[in-house]
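task queued by scheduler; priority normal; single chain, no ligands, no partner chains; default sampling; output format set to structure tokens
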Amino acid sequence: MTFAWYAHLQNLADRPWYVAAIVSWGIALFEYLLQVPGNRIGYTMLSLAQLKIMQEAITLTVFVQFAVYYMRQPLKLDYLWAALCIVGAVYFVFRAPAAP
């Protein structure tokens, strides 16, 4: 989703917003076609909260790499602090077994 949401800022900046929206929707549709079955399978073993926190951790891991390498944004120490907060969230949501 990171690419669908933010790549147009660099690649389609000279195009009308609706072109960027259509391209982004096309990319997002493909990602949703993978995410929906993944969530259905994951929900058989993980709680809803665990699925959400895992999704956020993965999204932020991908986003930092995307921001630094693709969008050429400077790497900041704040990314480390944010990552530590996410690690804490992962710890707390996964420390107890998932509720049925």
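post-processing summary
- The CA atoms of residues 68 and 98 lie 35 Å apart.
- The two ends are 29 Å apart (CA to CA).
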